[in-house]
Amino acid sequence: MSSVALAKRKKVHDSQPIAYLFVFPYLLMFFIFIVVPVIAAIGLSFTYFDTVRAPFWVGFENYVNIMTNDAIFMQKVIPNTLKYAIIVGPGGYILSFLLAWMLAQLPPKLRTVLALIIYSPSLTSGVTMGVVWKVLFAGDATGYLNSILMRIGIIVEPVIWLQSQDYLLTIMIIVTLWSSMGVGFLAMLAGILNVNTELYEAGYIDGIKNKFQEMFYITIPTIKPQMLFGAVMAIVGTFASSGIGVALSGSNPTPQFSGQLIVNHIEWYGFNKFEMGYAAALSVLLLLIIYLFSRFAFRLFGSKNE
Amino acid sequence: MIAVKKKKSRFQATKINPKHFHSSQIRYLILLLPLCAFMILPLIYILNHAFKPLDELFFYPPRFFVINPTFENFRRLFALTGTSGIPMSRYLFNSIVVTFLVLVFSILFSTMAGFALSKLQFKAKRIINEINTVALMFVGIAVVIPRYLVVERLGFIDNFFVHVLPYLAIPVGLFLVKQFIDQIPNELLDAARVDGASEWQVYRKIIMPLIKPAVATILILSFQAVWNSADTSQTYINDDTLKTFAFYMGTLTNNTNGVAGQGMGAAASLIMFLPNLIIFIVMQSKVMDTMAHSGIK
Question: How far is A258 from chain B (nearest CA, A)?
């Protein structure tokens, strides 16, 4: 069989045009719904476009306006987005790694139950959970949080949580963290569970003294690829769920822009003010921010040296 | 560094992935259990609220647990019609059809592409893989406006399939499938090719049966994305008869303020959440299997 097999294998390793048929359906959808919109966003960001007249070229005007003329963007949207993104992104990521790591120290049955509990909030979505949060955080005395806090005497009057500029962002962060233990968390858990135990034995022979050294010198370096996947998922999840402020407060813009994030700002300009060019420029900035965050994660955990 | 003396006992006491319970694990439970309680609280709340009869919904101060569970909220939810006289069952039907189509086609497209990108040789392979890895970072709502313009230009506004199409290219899904197929030895495929199998047969008869865990994972990811999504209804659909259940939920919270609406809202949340949970519980071991290969190298 060997000569036939060799001949076949040789043929197999040449170019196989049929491969294009296999990738075509995916690529077509990928192209229409990901590539074209990104290119269109970049193109539109250099134009003025109000959806009625054809877009016309304005050069960098939109970007200059974002930086110099948009007080709401600079005073509310950027600080809000930074605070939200840093706590939910890296904060949520570290939390999900630590949770995965602690779960890995438990026996299988107990671990599966607890992992399921921690993972299940990520199965909900912002919009559908709106009902729940609105009752828990209801602004009158019938709200669960108000009721509890009033009963134990922390507050006297009910607080209008979701319409308050002091609390909205905090509630958004808590709610998003609650639902952020998703795919990345599972990937890291699977990674930690699959670390070869001989590595730990060897590590202890080489002088590792405690669990923290074990985590830093063995676990994390061994599961770098999963750590990177988890990091990318954390970044994407953070920005993808940032419509939550509007879902909670029920309006865009959020009360006094207190929960306004870049995503809400984009939709506000695009769908409420019909300034599509400006909104597109904001989109491009957001994509750049996400990309930079991810590059940073690749620098930390990637194996490729650029 | 040579410290041979006490390593054995220390290692045994602090093992990762232990088989049995050991008192050294209690310190982790002290941290984990309160956190788990916090995580599960809103879910227990939905479960209880959904089954509360009207008088219990009106309790003041509010009570967390239900006393006399009833299906009243579900009955009223199903009897309710939308603002334009469309029964709720219509939205639920739309959601089920959309979800079914997305699952079938996203699994087909991503496994086909994953097979080609992992096991076939062609020129564009490397660049497609690299672009897809970059696209893992793609966030759909960042380009909601250009996407809308593209959909409008293609004439897909108010077309039922606009619910389905955007969910057929999920870079994470393709990425996971491709990583999983990478583990399958080439010899297996070559043996089939020697026996005269076409690439399509290799894909159908060898790859598909071997990558069931990865398929289960895309199934869950796609299900979650599409079943929970109100975005497509909100952005691309004006015709109320074509909107989905997730969207309807959103209007439910805005239109039916007041306590009676809360009960229905919780019932609807439960309908949204339970399928996700059941599918995940059924398939969780397969998902964990796929996740072990999820690393980005």
Answer: 20
